[in-house]
Amino acid sequence: MHDRHPLPLQQHPRFATALSAVGATVSATHLPQADDIQIVQRFGLHFATRGPIFDPKAGLDQRIAALRQAGLHLLNAETPDPALRGAGFRQTHTGAFVAEMILDAGIIGRLHPKWRATWRKAGEMTLKPAPFTPHDHGWLLQADHLQQRKAGYRALPHALIRAFAATAPDAATVYTAEIDDAPIAAMLFLRHAPVVTYHLGWTSEHGRLCGAHHKILIAAAHDHAAKGYRRLDLGLVDTHNSPGLARFKIGTGALIRQLGGTWIRLPGLCEARSRLASGRIGR
């Protein structure tokens, strides 16, 4: 686990393999001064999420040239970058925020006081980590499906979770909290070293009251830190639509970081605008 630039889930080769397994057209494109970018092709458009990941030493002109070379039409950028506009992209949406836990000896020290108190007072329960399998954890996917319907949101299809788990024996793991051998809460994590991403969770009312997710998350963070993982990606922080989940993520002391936003580049349109600006159209 010595990756120079830890890759987000959406830019990791394991995720690309899973996307291909469920029928998506994905290609890894080499860019100078950057990790290979995973590009999805659909309806004639090429788009990428959470990329590209440039070498910190790459200059502005180098990043502009690489972005032009990539052949992208749509990009959800990993970080704000003036090179995007320089490469002919136009921003359509501002960047969302994500929560990222650093996995080191300071995990407990960074917890917010109320969050830490809930974790310490969590009721007695048994935590069982296990590799995800459709047979053993179909109940968790069913519970997630029901809560998606109830809350009115949609997430990545479960077929993609199954495909990701199939990429390697350690690719996906589930931590289940049990009392008297009955599950009261669970969290599913996707591993793409040196990063692990929290993907979905479920809790019963009893699990919520006894702080089961607090207990699970700290156990998972410590376990992955011991295995050499450097970051735990908790995903999007949405204080408007999911304030409770946002408070949970913020309370971990995670770094709250803004992504680079959504950008579009239609080469023909960009070239036409350039010619219009220079007065070459109609001559």
What are the salient characteristics of this protein?
283 residues, alpha+beta, Aminopeptidase, 2 domains, 7-stranded mixed beta sheet, 6-stranded mixed beta sheet, 10 helices, 13 strands, 34% helix, disordered C terminus
Give your account of this protein's structure.
This protein is an alpha+beta fold and 283 residues long. It has two domains: 9-95 and 259-277, no CATH class; 98-258, Gcn5-related N-acetyltransferase (GNAT) (Aminopeptidase), CATH 3.40.630. Helices cover 34% and strands 28% of the residues. The chain has ten helices and 13 strands. It has helices at residues 13-21, 60-69, 83-86, 113-120, 134-151, 158-165, 205-209, 212-226, 243-250, 267-277, and strands spanning 25-29, 37-42, 45-51, 74-77, 90-93, 97-102, 126-131, 172-179, 182-192, 195-203, 231-236, 255-258, 261-264. The strands form two sheets. A seven-stranded mixed beta sheet has the order 7-8-9-10-11-6-12, sandwiched between helices. α1 crosses α6 (158-165). The longest helix has 18 residues, at 134-151. The radius of gyration is 21 Å and the shape is globular.
